[in-house]
Amino acid sequence: MISKLVDGLYPPVCVLCGESGQAGHNNQGKYTAAADICRACQQDLVQNEPACYQCGIPLSAAGNNPRLCCADCLQSPPCFTRTLAPYLYQWPLDRLVQAFKFQGDLTVGRMLAGLIQGNIEKLANAAVPDAIIPIPLHRSRQQQRGFNQAALLAADLAKGLNIPLRENILLRGKPRLPQVELDAKARKKNIRGVFALDARVAKLPAHVALVDDVMTTGSTLSEAARILLERGVERVDCWVIARAPKPG
Ligand SMILES: [Zn+2]
Ligand SMILES: [Zn+2]
């Protein structure tokens, strides 16, 4: 009732074009991502399909195997089980991610989380994780930015999907060089040993979904997954908005 009233007073507008968004709230009064993006702009976002089941890299042909993997994953599989990266990191999605991450546009962040959620709900064979864990930012980075974009996405996903959020398990140690300036090999080296687990956490969840904004080489997610698996987590999946092309 109240959410319907709010929609009437402040009709949601599309974050990309400013036209009116799609219906703001569903029947249960729950927020739907579609409120903040119009149908036409949502269709402009390039779906990452078909993609590798394990690492989410775009594949050229789908085939009949729903767990089809890329050649790299067949040869040396990453330690995480499945990647969900519903979009390609290109226009206009890159603009949205940047508005969220660097300009702190939280409406865009909420909308992006809603888009991931919509794609997870569409998956018929999705194994539901026991907990959602955001990739932490180093404290100094977070202070500079004012928030951790992955934590905001993870919180929205946890709430929307009704899965526990475990924000304090994974810790980030010393700051390193920004990954964005490095090639694939250097990224792997730079990130090694950057994460730790909070020793006070007695019992780790068996199946975890790691949340980040964009997956590029996968080295950050891989390193976080490695630590969790080493300490007894049985399965790690990666949930991101988009897959970017691998650099170098
Ligand atoms: Zn629009
Ligand atoms: Zn792959």
Write the layout of secondary structure elements.
Elements: H1 2-9, H2 39-44, H3 71-75, E1 82-84, E2 87-88, H4 93-103, H5 106-122, E3 131-134, H6 139-145, H7 149-161, E4 170-172, H8 184-191, E5 195-197, E6 207-211, E7 214-215, H9 219-230, E8 235-239, E9 242-243
Parallel strand pairs: 1-8, 2-9, 3-6, 6-8, 7-9
Antiparallel strand pairs: 4-5
Helix pairs in contact: 4-5, 5-7
The structure holds zinc ion (2 copies).
Could you describe the 3D structure shown?
- With 248 residues, this protein is an alpha/beta fold.
- It has two domains: 1-44, no CATH class; 53-243, Rossmann fold, CATH 3.40.50.
- The chain is 35% helix and 12% strand.
- The strands form three sheets. Strands 1-8-6-3 form a four-stranded parallel β-sheet, with helices on both faces.
- Helix 4 (93-103) packs across helix 5.
- The radius of gyration is 18 Å and the shape is globular.
- The model has no long low-confidence stretch (mean pLDDT 87).
- One zinc ion binds next to helix 2.
- One zinc ion binds at residues 52, 54-55, 57, 69-70, 72-73.
Please give a quick description of this structure.
The chain is α/β, with parallel strands linked by helices. It has helices at 2-9, 39-44, 71-75, 93-103, 106-122, 139-145, 149-161, 184-191, 219-230; strands at 82-84, 87-88, 131-134, 170-172, 195-197, 207-211, 214-215, 235-239, 242-243. It binds zinc ion (2 copies).
